Amino acid sequence: MPRRCWGGCGDEGRHGGARLAARLSRAFAPGGSLADSEQRVYWLDSPAAPEPLPPLEGEARCELAIVGGGFTGLWGALLAAPDQDVVLLEGDRCGWGASGRNGGFAEASLTHGFENGLSRWPDEIDVLQRLSTENFAAMRETLATRGIDAAWEEPGVIDVATRPHEVEWLAEAAAAAREHGEQATLLHRDAVRAEVDSPTYLGGLWHHTGGALVDPGRLAWGLREAALSDGVRIHEHTNVTRMRRDGDGVVLETASGRLRARRVLLATNAYRPLVRSIRRYVVPVYDYVLVTEPLTDEQWRAVGWERGQGIADSGNRFHYYRLTPTGGEGGRPAPGASPRILWGGYEALYHFRNGMRPELEDHGPTFELLASNFAATFPQLEGIRFTHRWAGAIDTSSRFCVTFGKALGGRVAYAVGYTGLGVVASRFGARAALDLLHGRDTELTRLELVRSRPIPFPPEPLRYAVIQATRRALARADERGGRRGLWLRGLDRIGAGFDS
Ligand SMILES: Cc1cc2nc3c(=O)[nH]c(=O)nc-3n(C[C@H](O)[C@H](O)[C@H](O)COP(=O)(O)OP(=O)(O)OC[C@H]3O[C@@H](n4cnc5c(N)ncnc54)[C@H](O)[C@@H]3O)c2cc1C
Prior knowledge:
single chain; nine-stranded mixed β-sheet; binds flavin-adenine dinucleotide
């Protein structure tokens, strides 16, 4: 999810020590906060989920094939159709990947935050900022004109400081935000606690502009519906097992069919790529999320949170959290409605050789750590239960934002590597990848962001060792007043890192 650096070691909680050990051992025990939780994605666990579309059977043809039915693939379909004849193949259900599992923080930035963009592309940062704003506005407009109800609200996001050094960081960030035209309010401790009450808060920075909160499941289903009504043929439960050149086109093979396309947009994110070289640039990093039961009136009053802002910690290891939508205005809960709290992040796990397996999604110690940190943040909610727990793979790149490429002599293009900030950037990713695919010379294809590649991750076993060393270094920096040690400074110098 949003903005900060990649998850940490997981061996210390928000407040470490014996209190943590006691809480951890209790969370899954009978009566513990995780005891009744089920491994289900809250956003997808809804009666609004559409019926599955039939898999591809036999032979088919199209102009543009899209592999992957997350936000990148769905935006690609919507941007290309109805001018082009489009077929989208999704291995599971549309929105089943990261797109249906995220926190729903829809931030405008295309570069994983202004500072990351500035440090990597100083010469084009103004253009990138303008394109971020335009992309965000175009997304909002499409949802409105296509009648996609994704519970889009713009209450703003508060970055909170929970350690003294983070208070200083927020003051610097506030100055930078104002300099670049963003509306942001620096909140001292009492002011932030008046918005949302946690004894851990020492200060906050409330970003009023440049972001929304959405229901990602409804967003994916709405985009899917709009694409279908534009004539896109979508096949779900259709995993593409092989992709090969065929004359002036490409053939995609699946278990029960074969699709011949003139061009292919790959939108497979962190999943095993059909183009091998993507593995050098993108690693899957599991991020974990919990959702509570609906808050009672008493619990609700104890936290405040009347205006429903999104919240993110300021450390390297950060939680992101928000209320689930209840149909109220401007992010506020609807009168009489009981929101839940979505609580995710902090520890993100990489597995040897880009490991991705269903069993990696249910990692007890990580959920226990999340539950423990939740209890430390909101002690007044003692006794609250979590109902949902899940994980999703973040497509982490060493530059923290989308990466593009072409394959099979230009017949295939891809956009991957959003590194936890892809809810809005995926629309831009799809647009730029389509321009590349059609050989168009546009403002987007001329961007250094689109033309350049991140520093590749080293091969295994070095990859695993480097990532673990970085996780430990990030955790240490959090505990040592934010000071980045030798290892992180070295990575900073070569322009590489890890982030979620
Ligand atoms: C837990 C979590 C929290 C996050 N929080 C936020 C957030 O709050 N804000 C934000 O901006 N971003 C967030 N992100 C990141 C964001 O969700 C992603 O960047 C974005 O959804 C990427 O969309 P995508 O379409 O590229 O990938 P995905 O949604 O992962 O879609 C890829 C699709 O490709 C399909 N696929 C893969 N291989 C094949 C194949 N061979 N054949 C057919 N289909 C295939 C998969 O089934 C999948 O559905 C979060 C991610 C996670 C995991």
